[in-house]
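Regression test attached.
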Amino acid sequence: MDTTRRSTGHEHDHDHEHQAVPSDLTLRVKALESLLVEKGLVDRAALDALIDTYEHKVGPRNGARVVARAWVDAGYKKRLLADATSAIAEFGFSGRQGEHMVAVENTPRVHNLVVCTLCSCYPWPVLGLPPVWYKSAPYRSRAVIDPRGVLREFGVEVPEDVEVRVWDSTAELRYLVLPERPAGTEKLTEDQLAALVTRDAMVGVAKVTLPRQVARA
Amino acid sequence: MNGVHDMGGMHGMGPIQHKESEPVFHARWEARTFALNGAMGAWRKWNIDAGRHQIELIPAADYLRMSYYEKWFVRIVELAVKHGLISRAEIESGKPEAGSARATPALTADKVQGMLAPGKGARRDVAGAPRFQVGQQVRARNMHSTGHTRLPRYARGKLGTIDRHHGAFVFPDTNAHFLGEKPQHVYSVRFAARELWGEQASPRDSVYIDMWDDYLEPA
């Protein structure tokens, strides 16, 4: 198996139907897994458990609960901004790629944006595994040199008088953006608030907005 | 190393292909590759820094062409061979070499939950106070390691301000090469966007970069 040879073009950022003929990578990964299982180096049940964990147990809904709590509970927000790792652990969210968390707060004067220019560092326990765009060259290259342009591409226009802070995740600290709570949400419960919070808002490439039906209610 | 992975500030990478939502894995092989990385990492033959470095070692043209998990696939194979867990011959044949002993998996399903437990991660206790104080001006050293480093090119030689002290952490530049953890203080350093990018940047904006003590000198 040549580990560097060209793949067959079944890259994951296409929406096409999945092929009847297994892709080259499908076969190569299957062959490697079989070899490692046969050698007793990996346990298939452990692989299944890992996949299940990151597909179903960890994801941006975790982060959304943290944000919603910070919006309704001033004491929690204070703890989150002072020691995010402990505050997030109050929900039981911890572990790999979230051992050292930092929360940064968006305000009317400051907009925060998170990137990892060197690889794909991302706060797994609160946001899950990173989306393709976050780990891809266009975002990684431009977020630090042209954050306002990047934000515009995401539909966020940051006024001139607002400061943009970009956090490049070069060490083992992992960043969570605490977005601004949208106006008109005073009557919403914590759970309803959490439902509004998106992954993108917690990376800092979006703002939390109120869907029409909530705004009318 | 001054590799293509060190992308901060590069032009020409094309538009951001944003999607509001997407599956965690886009194909089963991606999921299996992700899990194989975790299960093989559990042998502790290498560390997270060596794992990152292995991806940096992918030739630049391949690095840019390959999808994310394809790079992870290359990483498992290269590290497992380098550290003697499998041989090239086994990769070629897809079968264990005759007479090779069967191992007992390092990661079993019951231990997976433990990966979500609080851990000490890369933080370490070190003797000695941090060399720099919050608010102090520092300069990122202008050095071009040929090995692994987390000092991005775009910050080298630039003037910044210590924004906060994070505690002491394992030093990737040595750990990636199995030269010891060399734990040292890490700071968030604020760089004005104009210091990094000149007049084209907004005078209000800044980039915060986490930096180990060895990356910095007093300004």
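Expected vs. actual: identical. Chain A is about 45% helix and 10% strand.
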